[in-house]
Amino acid sequence: MLSLLLLLALCSSALADGATYSFSPSVGSGTGTSYSLSGTGKITAVRVYEAANAYISGIQLRFGGIWTNLIGRKLGSAMDLELRDDEHIHQISGKYHPSNYIYQLIFYTSAGRSLIVGQPIQNSFNMYTARKNEQLIILSGRFNSAGITAIAAHWGSPDVDYGNVTTSS
To answer: What GO molecular function terms would the record report (predicted)?
Structure first.
């Protein structure tokens, strides 16, 4: 809860400066430990781990050249998407089960590329920017010792510093 309040305070100060911000609500069971993956600057890469032919077990974002802490766990091989200088994430889709895990994540970029990890089973979700000038700036949700149980997307202006906070509580 404290990490969510910190996140809201950071976003509120950015909004006061005229920056835009929008939020795609969480999908998933909502059980486990909360997380927020954020950093300074734009997201330059995404790394996702999948339990073999099952659910999403871990996720990381890279801001500039700095990777966030791993949320969840390393299980299986990592699937990475390196973003180009002029590219950003503008949509996330996937599949989730309402009582346990995120089963699939698809990250779509402004250059028409995508990263698809996981199994196309269970309930579908789709998250995207509310305004044309926004991009993915923060991922949040919940995880447990086996994997990612919930995910939400935060969208904002690429030129606004939303802080350098990677927390789990």
So the answer is: carbohydrate binding
Residue 33 has pLDDT above 70, yes or no: yes
The mean pLDDT of 23-43, rounded to a whole number, is 95
Read off φ and ψ for residue 9, nearest 5 degrees. Answer: -65, -40
Taking the C-alpha atoms of residue 107 and residue 10, their distance in angstroms, rounded to an integer, is: 24
Which helix (DSSP H) or strand (DSSP E) does residue 123 occupy?
strand 123-128
Which residues on adjacent β-strands are paired with residue 139? 37, 153
Domain at 21-156, CATH class: mainly beta
The stretches of the chain forming alpha helices (DSSP H) are 2-16
**Residue 72 in contact with residue 148, Cβ under 8 Å?**
yes
The burial class, CB within 10 Å (0-12 / 13-18 / 19+), for 60 is buried
pTM of the entire predicted model: 0.85
Residue 120 CA: distances (Å) to CA of 4, 68, 73, 154: 30, 27, 21, 23
